[in-house]
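Hey team,

Filing this mostly as a record. A colleague (T.K.) asked me to run one chain through the structure pipeline before their review meeting, and I want the input and output archived in the tracker in case anyone asks later how it was produced. No errors, nothing strange. Just documentation.

Input sequence:
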Amino acid sequence: EIENFYGNGEKILVVDDEESQREIACQLLSRLRYEVRSVAGGKEATAFITAEDVDLVVLDMIMGMGMDGLDTYKAIQKIKPEIAVIIVSGYSESKRVVEAKRLGVRQFLKKPYTIEQIGAAVRAALTPISVERYNGGRHDAGGCKAAAWNAKEPQVKKHEELFSSLDARKGATH
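Output structure:
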């Protein structure tokens, strides 16, 4: 049930050099009740997050001209390190994807993906505190940087409340 993955209007930026891929991602994420914008490349992404508040970036790893996903991720981290990032790619995990994960990318998602897959990845990326809780309180769980934990705490609490209510409703209907 996609209702399990509904957001609460969190702001997501989709970065992909292929227009059709941006449109698909935007449609899926909008259906999941996120506020979604998109740009075609790394330079546009860094300009956007400099000017706008963003909770999460869905970032294509392989883009044509200019910055690839890893370069864009590094630039995002310099500007706003608290922003959660999901890397997407039509290819298997490359050395660049492994490096991005080592640096703190929260999720890797292989294209093509379903609405449930992207919903689960977004939910996981936006709720890193739950990973910490189940990892004995360590801040290094899942490659997340410690600086990102405290910066997102109010948002994380809002997500946990939402997911608890969704889980309660799901239990009541089944």
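Quick notes for T.K.: The chain has eight helices and five strands. The two ends are 12 Å apart (CA to CA).
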